[in-house]
Amino acid sequence: MALLPAVTPAHGVGSRSDLPLPFTALVIAAVAVLVISFVAIGTLWREPRLRDTDGVLLPRPLAALLDSRWLRTIARVLAGVLTVWTLAALFLGPDSARNPVPHVVYVWLWVGLAFASMLLGPVWRVINPVRALHAGLLRLARVSPDLAALPYRWGLWPAALGLGTFTWVELVAEGNTSLPFLQLLVGGFLAVSLLGAAVFGRAWFDKADPFEVWSRLLGLLSPLGRRHDGRWVLRTPLHGVNGLRGQRGLVPTVAVMLGGTAYDGFSANLGWATFVQSSALPSSVLKTLTLLGFFTLVAVTIWLASAVSVRLAREPFSSSFSFVSDIAPSLIPIAGGYLVAHYWSLWVYQGQYAWKLLTDPLGTGADLLGTAALTPNDALIQPTLVATIQAVSIVVGHVLGVFAAHERAITVLDRRAAVIGQIPLMLVMVFYTLGGLTILFSS
């Protein structure tokens, strides 16, 4: 698998035509696993099992370390240093492939933050430099950190719009690695964030900041979590997802998360690239419409499945709107599986290559970090290993999604209605699995 060190801002992980796993066998196995899982939980998982008291307690020294102020301070300082370093390269560095900013934005911030959140939890809330800047400005002005001009009532909708916009920037926008473009992107994001925080207070970061919401939702899959009494525990990804309750804007946010990654894999297909080049429509327009189509497809299919489910469960149609919000968290494991499948190689290789660029942020030939001679290690992106990681992550993500949907369904519906009502959801899960594997192996 050839991966070039040039900037490739998250357009999949390269060609997968040489993957050694047979596609037909994988599809059969994936569908079988999902169907067997559905039958098993329908007969054996008869009542809600996930509780906020579950989990294996971490040793007290480790829990104390995670809660320690100095650990969080160190993390914030390192994030601040990286931010200043990146801003120096953004405004003073060369507008060329030697500039590290595209790698920091499209690889470390987008993909690296996702992987770190799935491993450690919502880390961006701790190290978010814009949140820290806002808090610092309030302290300098001697103003209460809870200051807000208006109450926040928009739910996750601004985050969904922000994530959708960034996905478009990453996958569609032309010249998205040029410094003028990135300066406008970073400057605009900083201005909107500070304005939102000035009007709505810290609630803006909790609900509207796209990267905090991105990190928080994917962080639900982390094995690290807090029990109902606040103590640190090791838990299953299902416990984190089950703890998320429906809220405004959750469905479009999850649709953007899942649809954006699916489009990224789809856009790497050679046939699609040929079609775009031969189309009478401008490529940016065609790509934008297709990306929006992927967002819409996810939102519509999960809503239709929910609507049919509530009718099969003999519930009023009006309840489908609340039910789809209840079921939406079950798409988060699927989105996480897609992320791992599509971005593993990009993260492993380009994530290392970023260090080679960061050592010379101003393009003067300096070697400030001693990494100028770094050669990325490709041991973790060998074809067989990558193929296995991709296939397993998609299947496991979908199985977790089935379990999460079942737990939520039997929580809000009676058992018989929940089992019958899950049939449309099961069909959607199978559709997503087949679609994900097809995209993966046709790219």
Automatic annotation (TrEMBL):
The chain crosses the membrane at residues 23-45, 74-93, 105-127, 147-169, 181-205, 249-268, 288-310, 331-349, 385-405, 417-441. The keyword tRNA processing does not apply. It comes from the Bacteria. Keywords: Membrane, Transmembrane, Transmembrane helix. This is Fenitrothion hydrolase. It comes from Terrabacter lapilli.
